[in-house]
């Protein structure tokens, strides 16, 4: 199965590494995170091959912990004894130069039954087929061109697949493998109508190649670009906004850092001290769930060997909790939520898995009718400018004007500004059309009285 080291070889190298640490009496614990992946992709511009990439990465990271909670980490890209000896030497050296931390420890729960999240596609693991990838790119290119004559160029038709193996092994006796796959397709188009021109696109990724609807991706790319072609400003005012599922998912992604326990402890989130408080409207329920079947953010275990879990962060607008790794869970006297984010070269931090707003019961047509007039938003621009400490944002929007519940003229070049916690209170409608974009998901949302700058 693909060109990766045999598992027995990897486990032997990892166990040998832990065995050598016994000579360092001040080291009380250690763990190893091993990752190996192969990825392949094709990219075409207007039917011509632009890029053909294949990558293979192998990395083994060693973390050591001393009796005072100091941590040290080092990694290598080879499994021979010389490289492993260097990793041991440098991880111990780095440990000596770190600060003591009484909350750092290894996962000691060994009686774990993992649930299968169905994140591995044997078909992808067999290897990448160049001809099949080329046919997919040709099909989405032809589909995009056939939908609308105003499509002047298919600037990108991308298809890629990836396969990854992960081993987590610790001095506490934990040893477990995980394997996962991903398939992705992206289409970007340029459309023009007279003097008006618009570039847009759409992409999707799935755990199983057969779950990707390539032609629908092309259709979505054209539809979303056509919707905002020739977009104009509306008057500056407060509007009802109906965010489609993609724009809503972008909104949800802005919230992630606010719920990470390490950010809360470092003063990088305004949610510090608000546990049990109401911070959003009754219709907002925010979930993080690493156990979703075929979820792009799903996993058997996190970077510390803690099983993936489902955590309710907001329930009817009330802050229920945060996402934790072991260190920050110990600080707050709570169990880890299984949200340790970690690479082979990094110490444990905290990260979300599948983060999403729970769906409501109404379809998009019903939400538009309830809104009556306002702006239908399909894209939020400038997400990187959001400040999770203050909650303030200023974002560009694209979409279409809503009049009598019907989508009318295209809208672009407008800006919404405010505070994200204030906006959470203004969510008055949640659709049933939940969709995931990567590991973030949301249904359509209706938000009232949003300050919007135009002409």
How does this model look, in words?
The structure is a single chain. The strands form 4 sheets. This protein has a 6-stranded antiparallel beta sheet with strand order 3-2-1-4-5-6. A 6-stranded mixed beta sheet has the order 10-9-8-13-19-18, covered by helices on one side. The chain is built from 10 helices and 20 strands. It folds into 2 domains: 7-220, PmbA/TldD superfamily (PmbA/TldD fold); 231-300 and 309-320 and 344-455, no CATH class. The protein has 455 residues and is an alpha+beta fold. The radius of gyration is 24 Å and the shape is globular. Strand 9 and strand 10 form a beta hairpin. The protein has helices at 7-20, 81-96, 122-125, 130-147, 214-228, 245-255, 261-265, 326-332, 364-371, 420-425; strands at residues 27-45, 48-66, 71-76, 151-170, 175-193, 196-206, 237-243, 286-289, 310-315, 318-319, 340-341, 349-350, 355-357, 374-381, 392-403, 406-419, 427-430, 435-437, 440-442, 445-453.
Give the key terms:
single chain; 455 residues; alpha+beta; PmbA/TldD fold; 2 domains; 6-stranded antiparallel β-sheet; 6-stranded mixed β-sheet; 10 helices; 20 strands
Helix segment tally? 10
Fourth-level CATH superfamily of the largest domain: PmbA/TldD superfamily
Unreliably modeled segments: none
Second-tier CATH architecture of the largest domain: 2-Layer Sandwich
Helix and strand run: HEEEHHHEEEHEHHEEEHEEEHEEEHEEEE
Strand count, sense and barrel status of the largest sheet are: 6 strands, antiparallel
Strand percentage = 35-45%
- Roughly how much helix do the residues carry, as a percent range? 10-25%
What structural category do the secondary elements indicate? alpha+beta
Q: Which word captures the global form? A: globular
Number of strands: 20
CATH class of the largest domain: Alpha Beta
- Give the rounded overall mean pLDDT: 96
Give the oligomeric state: single chain
